[in-house]
Batch of 2 targets.
Target 1
Amino acid sequence: MSPQWSRIAQLAFGFTFACMWSAQASAYDFHNCSDDEIDKIAGAAAVAETVMRIAEADLNSIEDGGDATRFETYLGSPATSERTEHVRQMLYAIWQGSMANAAYYCNRACPGGANAFSEQGSALGNQKTYPVYLCERFMDDDELNTYDRAATLIHEYLHHYGAWDPDFIPEDWDEWARDLAETSPNTAISSAWNLQFYIDQ
Ligand SMILES: [Zn+2]
């Protein structure tokens, strides 16, 4: 995990709430966002969709007998069809569900200096839109690029579908996720960090 990722992990951590996005949305739903902020979110969402397409191709490859290293690194082994299918359903949910129905709220206050948060499981109930709350760091931190912002959106989208976070901040999120994948693959498969790393690596 790069230092930058470690930092993002720390920024994004810490909430019962979590976040996500999709480029398929025909009418994005923005609240309290400037034109510049909307451009940043839309740019990140476009990258998020590209990243999700690549993850879909990786799942297809695994199911065709291809290399499962990336999957096993973050989601544990074995990469059975049952487990890849679980991840595929999550991927499609955030892609077609969260991204298409996200409501973005800019200029929110993030506890603990995170860059975003969202409502855990909001896509699983009757809500028509799934809020993603974006904080000052998401917009203004010069160390974040569009790819980093895309990763944050993916992470938040995953929370919409119930993906969980640990209740502590590890020293290194990437290492924490890899360890979890190795020791508890069936726990890792529903962790927001593990799924995010698998999807965006
Ligand atoms: Zn989270």
Target 2
Amino acid sequence: MRATVMYGSGDVRIEHVPDAHIIKPTDALVTITRACICGSDLWPYQQMKPSEIGNRMGHEFIGIVEAVGTEVRRVKPGDLVVAPFAWSDGTCIFCQGGLHTSCLHGGFWGGTELDGGQGEAVRVPQADGTLVVLPVGPDHALMPSLLTLSDVMGTGHHAALAAKVAPGKTVAVVGDGAVGLCGVIAARRLGAEQIILLGRHPDRIALGRDFGATDIVSERGEAAIERVRALTGGLGAHSVLECVGHGEATRTALSIARAGGAVGRVGVPQDATMPAAMSTFFRNITIAGGPAPVRAYIEELLPDVIEGRIEPGRVFDRTITLDGVPDGYRAMNDREAIKVMIRF
Ligand SMILES: [Zn+2]
């Protein structure tokens, strides 16, 4: 079969790899029908040291179950399934608590040991806990939005929950990538009254407004902080969603939360230390978040997608085939595309 392998910064190749197959009785074999490239795939694309063996890539996919191991009960051949970006057993103490990304028997796709989503097929460990059966066919018009349940929509939702978004609250979203835009959807869905999107790209801002952003802040640094304060009566936002992960965005997010407010961070931190330690301490800011347990949110968000109340699939602005993946990485890295979908 063919799959995406990254060998170093800027070096993404489509290669023949060993066919995915069932190894453990709890596995399923899934043929991919849709996958995508993630903003978090761009960190290794920018920084990975050259590797001889390379890393299999991709952690967001929808596919058809081809076969299951002898202990799999909840999914069967022929089912169309969506996979979260982390696999999990669904039964351990952390899964039962809704924190599937800390599953005692779970893990993440790709790397040097496991299949990744940017390939023709995947061996899915812990299939019963990991996969969610979709109630539509593989070419349904809602595929883009359903695919976002594997990561970006669940991650935006996680940021909103960590930031304690609730009806009537003022929310600020730092970052206009796919996760930030899904964070706007999540904030509106949870009843936020004012949603300030911090971003600069005209196409992304337009989509953010469609998703529910009430104010746009395109300044940076101190000017952005001043602008958010001006928009919130000088107080700052109750809830801040940090959807970028590097120093300046994190500093901005922590600085625009009002006293007693909360920052939900889902951008993977690119720095070893967190800024604004003193000012967040004295203002009693809650700092929460981490890798989103998107498996915990799929059942909750699925009806909103199926019934058309949210359209997170609009973050996809380019569709490619597997051969187009290397250029898809380039396009996202150059900010030519917000998010790229791979159709098999
Ligand atoms: Zn678990």
